[in-house]
Each structure stands twice: as structure tokens, then as C-alpha cells.
Write a sequence for this structure.
């Protein structure tokens, strides 16, 4: 049976292009448009943020920054004799800045350069450009040190920007978090989806997921004051705030996410799998462990990947629980993850300066890595779902 | 027609709620260390001068300088001196060097746990401890226990000051724990019996302040208001405000003068810093 629209009820183009049906309810139409705009803008925003972060980091990526503490300085006469283009370059000004500046400001800038060179140090490293890739990634024997070392000490006369301690810190803390969270979350997911009776499942699932609603600053605060003392008493290590503590606290934040995705994957395994296994005489545990879990394994992998991404990007907890930038794979030593560095240092970095740009570069790196991890996780979950539904 | 008027009124209401009124006529931004001080100054000043509106925000000294350079604020608070590169950007954008005013003194104490038997250290010994050369309290005449070094985040003006003046520019030990604020640092020092840390002299409940010797031969000085203001205590610094000289007139100039008057300086003590000596107030 099919309906045919009678000719008399033909839709007309109305005022402002509104369809007749909409014209009667302009507010609804506006809201609909607004919601549509908001959902598109989310995608645009993510893209714009990435463009902005990368743009701020670009001079570092292209090796255009110079962080040398000692810059060559010319006397007033010498500087005034320079051709315009050279003077502009010497003063590190853009075309438009140079065009706008009057003779007075140029003079002031030259004077300032002479002034600042008078107070500069005689440190042998003062002429180094520490923003070069070799210094960002490789060890170097700084004056006062007996061997080449990776050092992140961005504030001081010589700016030491080696990012290796931060990378190690991020990875170390995230792995500890995952090692703690994955078994617990997976165990809970198997129990809730396969073994628990429906009445327990009804309240247990939301209860575990409720943990996700815990503000990370509260978790960090709790970890810093309560868990730190407790764990130190149990394990007897010397550094009170360390990567282990940060990892455990971070693990608590990651558990609900990993649980949620793993539980979803396990539940999406068709009931017929379990029923077939039970019919052939297996116990419920055997069915869950040997039939359902292997079938949902890609989903568990995705949960781990997404959990790792979440752990890498988490800031507040690691900022409050661990932050000395040492390179050490000992879990009871401190660690300084990238996120903690950005959050703690950006406010005081000279706007547009090298420290500021390096932090943005780290941000872009973090953005890319977490984006890829999320992408991998999502793709894996989707493919698994399609396969279990028999579509692929 | 009715519909259109309805629409228009919706739009008008939206527009009105969006337009945030910018009533303040002096905008202050900068150092987090100085936020409370700057707010107290603003409150006290506004009580006396009902025509003045002062808006204070934190964010960090660097944020304050960036805002000063972009001319979105009138006054920038800073717990450190302005850097040459920051003066450069100011000259490039508004053709003037920002004017610097010293507005208060801050003394820095070195804290240890209350049960620690050490009472005094020299600047050299402090440098050894904080750079990681001295690792055990035994080397300083204390108990045989490793020294747990607590420091501040490198964004803090206190960190930079301590690095320049006590460590003489050398790096902090890599395992020094950076803490978010003086209060958090004190918490840790109070809980860890092998701890050492540094921070404002006016803070310090729960930990012991060390007396400091300028060098091995000089006397150890306790950090008190008297020793800090007179300059006898060796670890102290100025707090600054910076202003674009073209704006330094009328209400803003009046406010800056008031800050450095006896009345303004009496506020300083209430928030944990120390007033400027008389000869520096003009």
C-alpha cells in the first residue's frame, strides 16, 4: 500500500527558503540548524586546534629558532651602517615590524642588545643553539657535567631542552597505568558480561563506569595525599611521589574506559557461541575464557590501545603525583610526562619564544600519537563488530 | 509579523547575554605569586576611590608580559625581572621600554622537616644539596639518611630566583621533585623527615626554617621581617610591576604611586611579603 501526496498539498518554497512545514515552527527549524552546525563545528574545531598547535611549533620543526644565550652584538655605529635588510635580520624583526618601527625604536633595540651582551655569561655552552634536533634528542656533555646527559631544564642561563626524559616519563607512567588497569578492567568485563547474573550486572556495570565521572583533579589530590603515604608504607621506597604512584592513580582513571570497551566487545559476541559451547558440555567459565574471549580479542586489544591513549593524554593526575625529569626505567623513580611539562610550564614561557614553541611541538606530538591510537582502536572495534554481526 | 518580532526578541536577548561588559578601567595581569597581593591592593584601593575599577588576573609572569606587549592589560605583575627578549617584543609593538617598579620584598626560606637536627647551612652547602652533589644528611653533620630534595616547577619565579642566586646558575639535581606551589611543597616537607625545600619566608607552618650563612665565615641569619628588610638575610628578591610608559598617567599613575605609599605597603605584610625599605618607595 502506498500513499500518494495529493497535488493540492504541494509543498511551496516559503519565506527565507523555509519549507511550508517548517514555516509554522521556525524555532524548531533554528534549533535543528544550530545542532547540525554544532556537530560539524566539532570536527572543524579539532582540525583548527591541530593547525594552530602545529603552526606555533613550526619554527622548531623547521629549525628556525635560536636559543643561544650569547648573541652577537654590534656597537651603535656599526649597526647604523648596516644595510636595511641586514639590520632587520640582526634585530630579528619581520618585514611589517621593521616598516612600522621608527628610528627611535631601532636605536633602543640596538642599545638593548649591547646591554644584554654585557651581562652575559662566559659559559662554554652559551653560544649553543639548544633547539637543534641533535640537542632535543641526543645527549650532550654540558659544562659542569662529567658525561653526556639528557637534560630537561628549560629555565636558566643555558636552556636545556632535551625531550627524551619527557618521552620516557610519558611511556613509563602510561605502561604502569595499563599494566595495572588492563587485568582488573578485563577481569571485571568478563565477569559482568559473561558470568554475573543479570541482577548483579544491572548495578555493577554502571557502578564501574561511574568511576569515569571522577574528576581527575580529585583523583590526583587523593593520590598525592592518601595513596602516596599508603603505598610508601607498603612498598618502602624512598621517593614519595613517583611513577608507580602516578601509574596506579592513572590506572584508576583508565579502568572505566578499558572496562567499558572490553565489556562492549565481549557482549557483542553472539549468544549462540556461548550456547553452543554450553551445549557441548563446557562450563560457563570455559565458554567465557575459551570461546567468547578469543572471539572478542580484537576488542580487548582496542580497549588496551584506547586506554593507553587516555593515559598518555591525562594531565592533572601525573602533574600532582610525579614530575622530576629523570631518565630511569625504575618504576619507583620519579618521571615527568609530556602533559605535566606542558601544563606546568606554558604559563611562564616567553610568548612566542623557544620554550613556548617546544612545548607546542610536544603538544602536537601528543595530539598526533593519541589521535592515531584512537583511530586504531576505533577501526579495530568497528571491524570486530561487523565481523561478529556477519557483515564482513 | 508576530513571528518575526518573536524572533527578533530572541536574537536581541542572545546578543545582550553575549556582550560581556568590560567595566574595569585598570586591568592587571601576571605572576601567580602576586595574585593575592594584587587583589588585596585593588580591593583596598577601590574602597578608598569609588570611581576606580581594577580587574586582577593571574596566569604567570610570562603571561603578564605577553599581555602587556599585546596591550590588552595596563599593568603586568612579575615575580622576576623582565627578560631582554620580552623588552624587545615590547619595543617592536609599542616603541617603548616598559617602566619597571619595585613594589615589595620577598624573603625565601629553606625548610627542613621539624625533626631534622640541622639548624643552619651556608649558601655553598645549599647549592651542593640542590644540585645533587651532597646526597646524604651525614655530610652536613646530620643523621645518616638520604636527602630528599623538593623544588618548585620551573615556571615559578621562585625556582628561577633560587637557581640564579643560590645555585649560581647550575642545574637542579635531576631527581629534585618539582612541586606545584609553596603549600604543596610544605606538605611534602612536613611529611618526609629527610626532606629539604624552599619557599616564601612568611609560609612555613609544619616545617623548620633554616638559618642561612652567606659564606662559611659569616654568622647564620634567621629569616625574619627585620633581617629580610634590612638585607642581612641573604636570600631575598623584589616583586615588580611593569607598565607601558604611555599609559603611566592619570588613574594608573595614581594607583602605582599608592601601591608604593605607606598605605599600599601596609597591605603587603598581610599577604606574606615584606614592605619595601623607605628609600626605595619614591
Amino acid at each position: 500500500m502506498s500513499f500518494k501526496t495529493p497535488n493540492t498539498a504541494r509543498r511551496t518554497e516559503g519565506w527565507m527558503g523555509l519549507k511550508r512545514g517548517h514555516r509554522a515552527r521556525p524555532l524548531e527549524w533554528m534549533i535543528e540548524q544550530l545542532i547540525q552546525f554544532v556537530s560539524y563545528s566539532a570536527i572543524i574545531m579539532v582540525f583548527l586546534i591541530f593547525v594552530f598547535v602545529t603552526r606555533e611549533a613550526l619554527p622548531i620543526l623547521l629549525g628556525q629558532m635560536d636559543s643561544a644565550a650569547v648573541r652577537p652584538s654590534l656597537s651603535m655605529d656599526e649597526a647604523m651602517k648596516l644595510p636595511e635588510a641586514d639590520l632587520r635580520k640582526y634585530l630579528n624583526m619581520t618585514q611589517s615590524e621593521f616598516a612600522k618601527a621608527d628610528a627611535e625604536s631601532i636605536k633602543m633595540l640596538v642599545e638593548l642588545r649591547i646591554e644584554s651582551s654585557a651581562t652575559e655569561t662566559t659559559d662554554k655552552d652559551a653560544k649553543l643553539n639548544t633547539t637543534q634536533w641533535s640537542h632535543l634528542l641526543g645527549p650532550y656533555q654540558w659544562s659542569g657535567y662529567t658525561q653526556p646527559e639528557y637534560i630537561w631544564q628549560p629555565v636558566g642561563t643555558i636552556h636545556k631542552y632535551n625531550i627524551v626524559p619527557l618521552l620516557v616519563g610519558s611511556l613509563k607512567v602510561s605502561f604502569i597505568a595499563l599494566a595495572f588497569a588492563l587485568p582488573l578492567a578485563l577481569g571485571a568485563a568478563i565477569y559482568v558480561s559473561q558470568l554475573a547474573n543479570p541482577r548483579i550486572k544491572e548495578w555493577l556495570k554502571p557502578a564501574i563506569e561511574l568511576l569515569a565521572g571522577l574528576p581527575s583533579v580529585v583523583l590526583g589530590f587523593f593520590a598525592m595525599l592518601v595513596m602516596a603515604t599508603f603505598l610508601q608504607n607498603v612498598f618502602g621506597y624512598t621517593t614519595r611521589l613517583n611513577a608507580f604512584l602516578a601509574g596506579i592513580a592513572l590506572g584508576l582513571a583508565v579502568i572505566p574506559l578499558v572496562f567499558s570497551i572490553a565489556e562492549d566487545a565481549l557482549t557483542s559476541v553472539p549468544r549462540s557461541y556461548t550456547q553452543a559451547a554450553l551445549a557441548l558440555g563446557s562450563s560457563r567459565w570455559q565458554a567465557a575464557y575459551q570461546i567468547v574471549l578469543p572471539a572478542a580479542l580484537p576488542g580487548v586489544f582496542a580497549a588496551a590501545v584506547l586506554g593507553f591513549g587516555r593515559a598518555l593524554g591525562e594531565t592533572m593526575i601525573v602533574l600532582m603525583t610525579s614530575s622530576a625529569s629523570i631518565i630511569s626505567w625504575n618504576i619507583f623513580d620519579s618521571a615527568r610526562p609530556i602533559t605535566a611539562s606542558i601544563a606546568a610550564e606554558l604559563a611562564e614561557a616567553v610568548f612566542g619564544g623557544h620554550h613556548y614553541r617546544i612545548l607546542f611541538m610536544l603538544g602536537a606530538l601528543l595530539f598526533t600519537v593519541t589521535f592515531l591510537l584512537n583511530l586504531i582502536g576505533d577501526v579495530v572495534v568497528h571491524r570486530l563488530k561487523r565481523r561478529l554481526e556477519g557483515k564482513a | 509579523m508576530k513571528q518575526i518580532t518573536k524572533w527578533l526578541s530572541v536574537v536581541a536577548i542572545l546578543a545582550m547575554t553575549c556582550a560581556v561588559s568590560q567595566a574595569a578601567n585598570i586591568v592587571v595581569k601576571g605572576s601567580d605569586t602576586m595574585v593575592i597581593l594584587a587583589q588585596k591592593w585593588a580591593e583596598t584601593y577601590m574602597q578608598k576611590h569609588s570611581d576606580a575599577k581594577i580587574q586582577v588576573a593571574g596566569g604567570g609572569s610570562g603571561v603578564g608580559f605577553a599581555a602587556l606587549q599585546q596591550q590588552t592589560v595596563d599593568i603586568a605583575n612579575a615575580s622576576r625581572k623582565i627578560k631582554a627578549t620580552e623588552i624587545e617584543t615590547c619595543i617592536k609593538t609599542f616603541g617603548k621600554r616598559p617602566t619597571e617598579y619595585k613594589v615589595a620584598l620577598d624573603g625565601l626560606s629553606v625548610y627542613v622537616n621539624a625533626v631534622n637536627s640541622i639548624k643552619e647551612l651556608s649558601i655553598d652547602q645549599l647549592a651542593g644539596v640542590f644540585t645533587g652533589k651532597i646526597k646524604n644528611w651525614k655530610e652536613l653533620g646530620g643523621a645518616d639518611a638520604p636527602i630528599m630534595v623538593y623544588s618548585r616547577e620551573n615556571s615559578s619565579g621562585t625556582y628561577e630566583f633560587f637557581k640564579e642566586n643560590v645555585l649560581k646558575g647550575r642545574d637542579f639535581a635531576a631527581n629534585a621533585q618539582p612541586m606545584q606551589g609553596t603549600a604543596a611543597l610544605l606538605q611534602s616537607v612536613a611529611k618526609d623527615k629527610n626532606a629539604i625545600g624552599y619557599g616564601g619566608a612568611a609560609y612555613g607552618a609544619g616545617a623548620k626554617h633554616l638559618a642561612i650563612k652567606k659564606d662559611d665565615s659569616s654568622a647564620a641569619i634567621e629569616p625574619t621581617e627585620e633581617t629580610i628588610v634590612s638585607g642581612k638575610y641573604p636570600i631575598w628578591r623584589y616583586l615588580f610591576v611593569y607598565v607601558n610608559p604611555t599609559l603611566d598617567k592619570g588613574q594608573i599613575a595614581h594607583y602605582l604611586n599608592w601601591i608604593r605609599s605607606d598605605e599600599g605597603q601596609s597591605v603587603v605584610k598581610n599577604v606574606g611579603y615584606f614592605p619595601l625599605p623607605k628609600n626605595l618607595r619614591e
Chain A touches chain B through 55 residues (CB under 8 Å).
